[in-house]
């Protein structure tokens, strides 16, 4: 498709807002070695997309400007680069793109073949596009970091998931229940019933004193905390942790990294551990298969047209959603 143009959404500088997103024509990318070209059927937004546009990850991200944002896509492969053996033109897929380069909000995108997995027909493009960043983070925090066995063979575990309104929290609730954990979730009051519908055993209004204190309604202490919320002081977490309780912070800040180092130095059994996403195709494939089997679902907050991205971008910035925001060409 060399020489052809496509529509995409981009911004030319950091620090702006929704009005700085422009719907433009740019060349269709060409897949290089070990890459695939995907005709995008759906893309999802993540909170980090907004943070990157605001310059919150400079100088690492964005790597270049103009930037086409978005890392989570689903669509159909239309071409493959040299060296690609496990994927062919015509395959329906889900792919995760690099945060540094983005590219998801476009009609076509190039993705690494080793971060692209087959999407079965039972999983829609919108459902598939919601999985990569958020689903992978929830899976990594619970399994690789916290050691939860999703087949339910582990010991009984009490888990707190903060700010479960966000998509990482949505997936974390569902995955934790596959591990037969007792799940307490905090979320906005308007999302309590939705969190319960995903399987949470207890849901606390995060705007109330008990919610802000992270208290379990049944008085349980937490073996594992998946912290999806805003920075929270150790003094709030600590009284509600079990003797070996661990907090896994999926939005680490300098203060949380400092707290982690301090607890390591003092050999404390209670720890706050930052989680940095490590994208693995086998984990993404596992999540897509769970979606096919109906064991995990992508919660979709709303859908927008790629040609009018401003409202979707503004809603993502507000951080008052439950689930994923989807854009479709």
Automatic annotation (TrEMBL):
A Pfam family matched in the record: ADH_N
SUPFAM superfamilies: GroES-like, NAD(P)-binding Rossmann-fold domains
Signal peptide annotation: none
Alphabetical list of InterPro entries matching this protein: ADH-like_N, Chloroplast_QOR, ER, GroES-like_sf, NAD(P)-bd_dom_sf
Molecular function GO labels: oxidoreductase activity
Domain annotation Enoyl reductase (ER): ranges: 16-327
CDD domains reported in the protein's UniProt record: MDR1
Protein known as: Enoyl reductase (ER) domain-containing protein
Taxonomic path: Eukaryota, Viridiplantae, Streptophyta, Embryophyta, Tracheophyta
């Amino acid at each position: 498709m060399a020489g052809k143009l496509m529509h995409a959404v981009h911004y030319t500088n950091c620090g702006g807002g929704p009005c700085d997103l422009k719907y433009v024509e740019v060349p269709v990318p060409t897949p290089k070695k070990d890459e695939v070209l995907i005709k995008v059927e759906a893309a999802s937004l993540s909170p980090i997309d907004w943070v990157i546009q605001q310059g919150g990850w400079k100088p690492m991200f964005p790597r270049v400007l103009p930037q086409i944002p978005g890392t989570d896509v689903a669509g159909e492969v239309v071409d493959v680069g040299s060296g690609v053996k496990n994927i062919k033109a015509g395959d329906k897929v889900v792919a995760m793109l690099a945060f540094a380069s983005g590219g998801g909000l476009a009609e076509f995108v190039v993705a690494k073949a080793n971060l692209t997995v087959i999407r079965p027909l039972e999983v829609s493009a919108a459902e598939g596009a919601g999985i990569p960043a958020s689903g992978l983070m929830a899976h990594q925090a619970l399994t690789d970091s916290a050691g939860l066995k999703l087949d339910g063979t582990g010991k009984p575990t009490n888990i707190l998931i903060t700010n479960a309104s966000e998509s990482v929290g949505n997936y974390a609730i569902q995955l934790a229940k596959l591990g037969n954990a007792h799940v307490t979730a905090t979320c906005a009051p308007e999302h309590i019933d939705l969190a319960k519908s995903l399987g949470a055993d207890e849901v606390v209004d995060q705007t109330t004193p008990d919610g802000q204190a992270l208290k379990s309604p049944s008085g349980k202490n937490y073996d594992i905390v998946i912290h999806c919320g805003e920075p929270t002081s150790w003094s709030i977490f600590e009284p509600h942790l079990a003797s070996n309780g661990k907090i896994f912070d999926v939005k680490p800040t300098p203060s949380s990294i400092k707290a982690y180092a301090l607890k390591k130095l003092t050999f404390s059994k209670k720890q706050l551990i930052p989680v940095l996403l490590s994208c693995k195709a086998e984990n993404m494939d596992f999540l897509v298969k769970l979606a096919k089997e109906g064991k995990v679902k992508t919660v979709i907050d709303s859908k927008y047209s790629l040609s009018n991205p401003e409202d979707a971008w503004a809603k993502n910035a507000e951080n008052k959603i439950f689930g994923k925001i989807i854009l479709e060409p």
